[in-house]
Structure formats: C-alpha cells, structure tokens
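Let us begin with a simple case.
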Amino acid sequence: MSELKLEFVGKQVKDMYGTFMGKVVGMVTDSDGSIESVGVDCGSVGLKQLTYDQLLVQGDYVIYIPRWRLDAQKLLRQKNLTLKRIKALQDIVTENDLMKGDAELVYIKYEKRLHAIEEDEKSINEKLQTRLNELEAESKSIKAVLFDAKLQYRSNEVTEEIYQQISVYTNELLEHINLEKAEINNVKAKLSKQTLENIASTTPNITITTQGLTTAAESTLQQESATQNVMTPQSVAANANTEEKVVVTTDNNSETEANWLNQVISNE
C-alpha cells in the first residue's frame, strides 16, 4: 500500500469546524491506482464515501471540507476575475478609442461569461441557504437536548456533574454550527458585493466609463452597479490571492493594446 493511502487508513475524520464524523476504514481507487473516495465508518449512520478532493490530512486527523465551500470559493475567484477584465476593457477604450471595435468583440465574450457565472451564483446561493436551514434545525435540536438536561437537573433526576458534561458537549456542537453559519453568511455577503462598481472602486484615480461599448451588457452592468453598495478594496481582494492578475497600461501605445486584445481573443 502506498504512503498516500496509509495516511488515511485508521484516522479519525472531522469536518473543518471540529465536529467528528467517523473513522477511515478504506478507499475506492481508480484503474490507475489514484484515490477516488474514502470510506468512513460513521457509526449508526453507516459507511459514507467522501470524495478525495474534499479531504485533507492534518496530523492525526482527516479534515473534511464541505462541497459548498469549494464551489463558492471557485465562483468567487471566477466572478472577481471576470469583472476585473470587463473593467480593463472599459479602461482601454477610454484611453484609446481606436480600440473600440476589438474591445467590443472581447466584451461580448465576457458579458456571456458573466451571465453564466451569475446563473451559477443563483444555484450556489440556493445551496448555501439550504445548508443554513439544515444548521438551524440542528441547532434547535441540540438546544432542546440542553434544555431537557437542565430540566432533569432541576428536578434532581441527574447530578450537577452530569448536567455540566452535557452542557459542555452541546455547547461545543453549537459552536461548530455557529462557525459554519458565519462562514456561509460571509460567503453570501462577498458574492453580493462582487459588482463592477466595487471592482472599479479599487482604482479611484481612473475614470470609469463605458464609452464605445454598445452591447447589451452596458445597460445591465450600469443597473447592477446602481443597486449595489460600495465596499472597500480590502473586501474586494479577499479570497482572490490565487487569481490571474490583469495589468492595465496607462500609456496610449495602440500597438501594445492591440497585442493584448488579440491575445485575449485567441485564448477564448
């Protein structure tokens, strides 16, 4: 058995918020020997297969990363980069009107990409809200257990020591739930604040205009910008450390701009 597989077998699994899920009992591999999923004994719940890309070995534990988190982080990066490129196109047209024709071709491509991302965002938000509802239901169930334990203690059915133990365990579970709820709400807030206006606010010394861009996206982006709150450059940059950087030149060298646009068109 490879060292990679040995890293998983027999380890306890917990989610990234600290809740224990079970123990790794085996793995399912592809024909080339790579790990597809990891089997986790979850007690009375049974054996669960967790996909390999959602797992991370950390010391004596295997950490499970929820799918919603991976999907949301990917969407945040994609949307941020797309908005940055749309803004870069607007800046290029503003600085050199001769690039209007080429810029429109690229702009249409990014308009379609932004629309697709916004559709994905709706789906992600639905999943996030579903997860929040699940966590709220779990929280109520845990609080009911804690309240009943307190009731048993006050009626002298259990000792204070037993009640304190139950209190510690249930509060730990509630803390894990609150951590996940806070992160979900944070992701939802970041997605809602990712707009062209907020991306533009990171470079206040440049006048933003859609002059020369006559596609349907112009009015759409203006309407979206008008209805969104402005956020700080720090919040725009959050979770975007690994994104591709777009460099917008401020000189009027049309040959350099043409090369950049042609490269973007060919890469599409």
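The second case is a distinct protein. As before, the sequence precedes its structure tokens.
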Amino acid sequence: MSAAAKLDDRLEIDLGIFNPMAPEFIRDPGETWRRLVLEYPVAFHRDMGMWVVSSHELCLKMMMDLRFSPNFRHWEYAPPEKTEAEKDDYDITMDHSLFTVSPQQHLRLRKLTMPAFARHVMSKINERIRGLIVDCFEAIGAPDEFDAYATIAANLPARAIARMVGVPPEDEIIFIKFSNSVVKATRINLSPEERAEAQHDSLEGYAYLRRAIAERRARPFPSDDFLAALVTAGEADDRLGDWDILAVVMALIAAGADTAVDLHTYVLQGLLSHPEQYRLLQERPALQENAIIEALRQGSPGKLPIFRFATDDIEFGGQTIRKGQAILVNLAAAWRDPQKWQDPDKLDITRNLEGHIVFGAGPHFCIGTYLVRAQGGIMLEEFIRRFPHAELARGDGDLAYDYEHHNARRIVRLNVRTNVGAAIRHAA
C-alpha cells in the first residue's frame, strides 16, 4: 500500500510520510511539515494509530473545540479506571488536573489561581529566577567556548519552577526528578510499562509537595512564593484544596519544565545561526519577547507536541474522527504553515506574530507562559550582556540531537564560541 491512501473516505498516512523518530526528520523536518500542512492537514496515521492535524487553521480550531479533550482518560486505549483504594498521589492529583476536570471545574481552578499570578507575586518570583540565572552564568564564566545545552538548557528550567514554587536549593534534586517523571507519565506514545515507571517515580515528589503545602497552611503569615500564594488564594468561601494545588503545580511543570529546555537551545541556536538577527536584538532590546516567540516558531522543536481525544464521533476537516481516538495536534508543523506565515522557514525577529499559537490557544492556553517568557528573557539578557560577540562554534555549534526523546527534537549539544578574549584584545 502506498504511503498515503484514502480508504472509506479516510485520508491515511504512514511512517513513509511522517516518522517523528527518524534521525533525518529530527535534523531537518521542514519538508515533512510542509507536506503534512499542504497535502495532509488532517490524516489518520496507520502506524501511530492516531490522527495528525497539522495546519495552523485546523490546529487552532481543534484547541478551541471543547469536543476534543486533553483528558488522557478519554483515549480509547486508556488504562482502566482504578478504584479509590487503588489510587496513589499521582492518580488523585490527575483527578483534579486542569486536563481532566470538567470545563466548569477548569474555569474554577483558573479563576482561583489568578491571585497567585498577581504582579507582586510574579515580581518576587522574577527575583528568584534572575538570581538562579545569574548564578548559572557566573558558573560558566568567560571561557573561549562552552556547551549551551549542558550549562544553560539542562540546568535552568526545572530549577526555575522549583524556585517559583518555593523549593529550597537543597531540595531541588527531588523536584527535578518529580518534574521529569510527571511530564513522561501522561505521554500516550510511551509503553504502559514506561508510563507506570514514570508515575511511580513521581510519588516522592508528591509526598514532598504535600508536606510543603501543609507547612505553608500552618504559617501564621504567608510567605511570598507561588505555593503560599496558591494556599491563600480564594474567592468568598471557595479555596483551593491540596489536590487542586498539586494539580496546578503539575500543569506548570508540564508547560514550563521539559519544554523550556528546548526554549533555551532553540532561541540561542536560532539567533546565533542568524548573526544579523542577533546584532539587531542588541540594537533593539525591545524586540526581546518577539525574538523568543519567533525563534520558537521558526525552530519548532516539538516532535509530538500535544494530544487531544475525541469525546464523540466528530466531523472535522473533512474527516470523521471516532469517539476515543487520539489526535496529535501538530503545532510544530502549524508554526511553519506557509498559509499563515510568509517565508515561514525564515527567522525574522521583527515579524508580526499576531495570531501565533506558540503557547497554545483556547481554554488550555499554556499556564506556564509567564514562567517560560520570564526565564527565556532573563537568560537572553544575561547571554547578550556577557557574550555580545558570541557565535556558534565551527559554524553549527557541533549540533547534536537526542534521537530517542519522547516528545522533542531535543538538542543535546550546542557549542558556543564566546569571542570574549578577542573582544578584550580588540578593546585594548
């Protein structure tokens, strides 16, 4: 059978069209994305057993459509529901998750968490994150060359969320293990055994956070971290319970930990691959936020970005998606959709990004957007201040990928030549 076929009016593709684990795709996905967007905007992937939606228009439409749920339990192959006696901390938190609760409960959780994102709380969190990032760059120093993945991208994101939540540095290792495990535990492209292992590995972190919540509830005066803000948040007599708070922290991790690793590498790789854009940002620092979003859009680091599950038989994009079927919302392809973006493969930090879906859209718009932008912005400020003449070592930074990563086109080596010594000699 050919790589794409139309059987019973269902447009189908296979690994010959889209293989997200293929090394050649991970290194250069552009042509695959263009083909998916233009020829197969909605198609059933026979080998992956799920639908793939790839155009910007249809990805946006799907994220806005409440009939397509982010709830893993709506999947036709979801494991059977556990009894209350069988549930551990992970299971109970998932019962309260923003991805699992009803739309009404989701709105309630979003509303009750708003005070935790108030300006004065975020200002304190910014201070903590800035201190972490400055310390990171102080540790790098001023070498002739360093690996931006090992020293920055792999070092900052989970620790930044730990600082935001209020986890002290001596307990960061527990939180980092927790972050890694909860991200993996909800992925449907893993085996049941891998998901079960990740879920088990998360339990130490849940126990730690439950103790931290209890400690903050016992304080006569609230502290200024995010966890304390969630403990005190409320409206009238409605307050967040412990499991609600854990669910919000879990959502923050899902949005801002693992994916932020790619933010750091792809932003630096994008700017240093385009020296004129790096110089332009130095000349016009007000473009910083636009530069971060554009570097993510153009780099498109996701392999399997987000999933949705049909809650009924639904006609969508000229195809019939059956109840319980999984849909890969292929945001990585949508970010490069030529029907939305002129010259989509080009990095242009002055681009008008109105209508972008880099952080998602709809009721499940990324709750970690502020944190991602904050740590990305502070990192970029420090990088430019310390290494204004930086360039990729040997032309491409000795670029290397983790071809086995479950979710991302994960860059695991990006060597940067700082040119600090040359700049000092030139100034002298």
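The mean pLDDT is 89. The chain has one domain: 4-427.
Keep these points in mind for the review questions at the end of the chapter.
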